[in-house]
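Slide 14.
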Amino acid sequence: MKPSIIIQGLIDTQADVVKTGSASCCSVCEKLGETTPGASWCSECQVSLCDRCVKMHVANPASHDHEICDLSGEVKGKMRRKVVCREHKDEVIKLVCKDCHKAVCQTCCVVYHRKCESVITIQSMLPNLKYHLRRHAKQLSKKIHRKETIVKNTDEKISGIAKNKIAVESHIKSAVERAIANIKQKEKQLMNEVKDIIDKQTKELKADVKLEEIEMQMYRQHCEFIDQALVSDCEMDLYDAYQAWESGPVELGDVRDTDTADTRRIDDIRFTPDTDNVQHILDDLQLGEIDVTYQDQSTCLPSPVLVGVIDGKMAGDEVEPDLRDVTVLLVDGIQTVVVTDLNNECVKSVYTRNNQLCQSRLPLDDSPWGVTQLKENQVMVAVPASRQIVTVEVTPDPVLLSTITTRKGYCSLAFLSPSSLAAGTDDCVEILDIAGHVLKSVTTHNNETLFDYPGYMCVNNKGNILVSDRGEQSVTCVTSEGDVVWIYAPTGDRALNPYGITTTPSGDILLADSTNVVRLTETGDYVTDHKDIGCDPLGLYVDRHDTLYVCNEGQIHEVNFM
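Slide 15: predicted structure.
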């Protein structure tokens, strides 16, 4: 290891102290066996001297020019350390070879540094050395101050972290306690609901038992009447008993069946956990729902139940919103509703984050209409008036990614594949590539006009395009090659006024029609009308939880088919 000048100086100084014993004693007198207090210090000879020895030291021609310091002051601060050459033990290092950057003695200079051009004394370097050392010390002082400030700030930050830890832990505990309280409240609600249902079921069964007991009592009384007639052997008693039998006994069961013919009776009670919502929602935690089955239920599909309404009006809207189409995305675990607002010329997203309802909007150049999901976090939006199709990233806030200009103004869109999509305009449905170029146009079927106003469309699980045409009052299923699979166009009282269209996970088709939603099979057969949607439906979309989202004017309705 390269020797350190600082460490070496400390070692030499310590060696001098050990060697000389104490600087307070005269070194010369000590060698003579005397103990005389030292009064001065010779920095050249590295010895302490008494007053007598100082006079002798100054009188000696060899040491008359040595620097003598008074020991009454700060001796160690003024002591000059002499460094002896490691190779030449009797030589003191007084020279510096600037070419070799090495401190040397006189002999080393003659032997090893004869060819070096710059060899000077250390004494001549002192002013320059002191200047640079003072400058360096000043820089070090600034660094020390800066480090002290950093250490102080870091210590304060450590203290702050400890306090913040307590606050964060308190918030976490508070949040957990709120969640636990919410869960316990939900548990209490479910328990109460189960209790009410069980009480009702028990009451029904007890009523049945009571009727059965009354009937048994009546049967016993009738038997006693017959037995009495037989025992009496009276002709009239026997005749009366016979007539009573012929007329038949009163059946309370018949009365009960008549009274309860239109009343559903509880058959079984089950609890179905709702784990998906438990995962994402705490404040409005849905642990599950009580599933009640009844005897003799109708085979018709259950009625839809409105579970929520989202207000489509947001800050920045200049007029009342007119929501035309809707889709739902799952962005980083956040369910996000994306809608197009015709009146305010923007795309809107609505989602819940940290149990707070969040709303965001993306202004466009003109009024948007149809929307379709492109990727997990991207949608494409049709802007028919400006003949544009815009791609929007949902973060879950809507962010404009790109805009393409098309030959026609399309109002409806449906994603087919990563390289193609279907688009509807006034009188045709066209297959486009992602850049907006027309690959194929579908206009006629059997030499007849197929479309008039295909305002909404979607793609089913077989990759076919379902077109809702308000002009033709029909729903048409076509392949991506343009072949017609089936057409649903009822007439008379069942004639359609169709708008939004979507499919369920099971493959059924839901169609917005005037004030209700029509359900069709995947082959285009009518199933039923779902009424009581809560609004006149326009855009439709069914999410992965089988929840139907219906947009109309300024609201989005969430509907469950229970």
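Speaker note: The longest strand covers residues 323-331.
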